């Protein structure tokens, strides 16, 4: 599958949280192929991934190690990326952790950690890049949520609550900074078969049951998110903001 080409993304300064694995890795590659200047963060070493991307695309991403639950680290990382690549005009808040947990066994420390990763980091990443976008005359923020909060699902209440919060955050920032031509949109994926999902939760029976509820019969792959993110980042969507795109193969509507 070939991603669409958006010429205005060439040389744009793009930052992706969690950009070295799963959905994030697919997004990093997609933006590199557009000719964008891509920086990304994650906790684990991504040097081999950067080497592979440079070989595959001729465009090397900037990897900056960071624990997004540490707001001070995240702010410094975004500042470093902006100094290296220019003011960030495309921010993709992608990193998340859907660790399962029992509601009655969840303590305040776990709740606070989950919110720090899955919601607080989104807010403070946006806060950090918005002044640069204002100075540049506009920008695009894409926040990854999830259909989990639309499903009345169970087993990870903190994560689900955070993803509902991401949609609310997206809408209020779109309203507040629309006058600066900063667009803020969200994407709510269905069950994307990343390596993490395959390792922890995918079973033949569970996947078959899930696919039976999708309108489309095919499993969703990380690369299936790229086209929509590129569209939201580009001027092709210049009048689109405060929206949530559901990319779930029709699961919610089924």
Explain how this protein is built.
Helix content is 44%, strand content 15%. By secondary structure, the protein is of the alpha/beta class. The protein has one domain (7-247): NAD(P)-binding Rossmann-like Domain (Rossmann fold, 3-Layer(aba) Sandwich). The protein has a 7-stranded parallel β-sheet with strand order 3-2-1-4-5-6-7, sandwiched between helices. Helix 1 (22-33) crosses helix 8 (226-233). The chain is globular. The mean pLDDT is 96.
Short description:
The protein is 44% helix and 15% strand. It is an alpha/beta fold and 254 residues long.
Strands, helices and their partners?
Layout: E1 13-17, H1 22-33, E2 37-42, H2 47-57, E3 62-65, H3 71-85, E4 90-93, H4 108-136, E5 139-144, H5 157-177, E6 182-189, H6 195-200, H7 204-213, H8 226-233, E7 244-247
Parallel strand pairs: 1-2, 1-4, 2-3, 4-5, 5-6, 6-7
CATH superfamily grouping = NAD(P)-binding Rossmann-like Domain
N→C terminal distance: 26 Å
The biggest beta sheet reads: 7 strands, parallel
Helix count from the secondary structure assignment = 8
Q: Class, according to the CATH hierarchy?
A: Alpha Beta
What structural category do the secondary elements indicate?
alpha/beta
Total strand segments: 7
Specify the oligomeric state. Answer: single chain
Name the overall outline.
Answer: globular
Could you name the ranges where pLDDT drops below 50 across 5 or more consecutive residues? none
CATH topology name, in short, is Rossmann fold
Number of domains: 1
Helix content: 40-55%
Taking all Cα atoms into account, the compactness measure Rg is: 17 Å
**Side-by-side strand order of the widest sheet:** 3-2-1-4-5-6-7
Sequence of secondary-structure elements: EHEHEHEHEHEHHHE
Mean pLDDT: 96
Strand percentage, roughly? 5-15%
CATH architecture: 3-Layer(aba) Sandwich
